[in-house]
Amino acid sequence: MFGQNEGFLALDAGNSRLKWMYRAGADESVGVCDYGEFGSVSLLQKIKCENPSRIVVSSVKPEAFNRQLAERCVAAWGVKPVFAHVEKNCLGVTAGYENLAHLGVDRWLAMLAAFSANEQACVVVDAGTAITVDFVESRGRHIGGLIVPGIQASARALFRDTHAVSPESLTLAQKWQPGCDTLSCVEQGVSASLQGLLAQIEGFSLQMGSDVKLYLTGGDAAVLQPWLGGSIKSPELVLEGALLWLKQL
């Protein structure tokens, strides 16, 4: 259990950056660190928090990175972190994968946070390097999900051999229409494919019932939100799930 005066640090080591949340009582701070910065400065300099009592990590990075991260936590705060892992049953949610090792811990923690918020059916869309979608029914059973390339990943695949344009220059249209040059064709194509994906997500959500909560998280959540009416933008969903997971240990 968490003590009222204790401080807890959650770290989310994703594919492209490290996010963090520090919570002590009613006080909370969040931030993000690019891995380039992470390699050149200490955690203590980048993460602004008082000495945490416990540290929990969600990581999709290789084991060598995780060992280095653990060493830095001990050096900075004298606390050995706990690495979250997927369990078949946790906080009312039952994982849908037969092989739990194949389910990303970040997806699992996001589901725990989303379901725990209202204990009702929910859909979690995490728009990052990849776009992952997970469906959880009202009794907490994870019925599966989807994984597709993220916005930047899709664009990079098309621009790999084209130097005139870059994926960072994309402007996605709210309503797609045919493009008249390479950049606009890619922009409209990515917009059309995303809108098709989100329409399928909404359609499947309706099949799950009339009272399904749809959560958006990840770096590109703000891009997708206009296309998903009624969705709940929750940027720190993985970190919230990590703290919930830590609390039940």
Structural features, described:
- There is one protein chain.
- The protein has 249 residues and is of the alpha/beta class.
- It has two domains: 7-83, ATPase, nucleotide binding domain (Nucleotidyltransferase, domain 5), CATH 3.30.420.40; 89-237, ATPase, nucleotide binding domain (Nucleotidyltransferase, domain 5, 2-Layer Sandwich), CATH 3.30.420.
- It has eight helices and twelve strands.
- Strands 3-2-1-4-5 form a five-stranded mixed beta sheet.
- Helix 4 crosses helix 8.
- It has helices spanning 35-38, 43-46, 63-77, 105-118, 151-159, 182-208, 221-224, 237-247; strands spanning 7-13, 17-24, 27-34, 54-59, 82-83, 89-90, 93-94, 122-127, 130-136, 142-149, 213-217, 232-233.
- The model has no long low-confidence stretch (mean pLDDT 90).
- It is 35% helix and 25% strand.
Tell me the layout of helices and strands.
Blueprint lengths: L6 E7 L3 E8 L2 E8 H4 L4 H4 L7 E6 L3 H15 L4 E2 L5 E2 L2 E2 L10 H14 L3 E6 L2 E7 L5 E8 L1 H9 L22 H27 L4 E5 L3 H4 L7 E2 L3 H11 L2
Parallel strand pairs: 1-4, 4-5, 8-11, 11-12
Antiparallel strand pairs: 1-2, 2-3, 6-7, 8-9, 9-10
Helix pairs in contact: 4-8, 5-6
Q: The CATH topology of the largest domain is what?
A: Nucleotidyltransferase, domain 5
Sum up the overall morphology in one term.
Answer: globular
- The appropriate CATH architecture of the largest domain is 2-Layer Sandwich
Uncertain ranges: none
- Please report the number of helical segments: 8
Kindly provide the name of the CATH class of the largest domain: Alpha Beta
Q: For the terminal residues, how far apart are their CA atoms? A: 8 Å
How can the largest sheet be summarized? 5 strands, mixed
Q: List the secondary-structure elements in sequence, H or E.
A: EEEHHEHEEEHEEEHHEHEH
**From the helix content, strand content and strand pairing, which structural class follows?**
alpha/beta
The total count of strands amounts to 12
Estimated radius of gyration: 19 Å
Number of domains: 2
Strand content: 25-35%
Give the mean pLDDT.
90
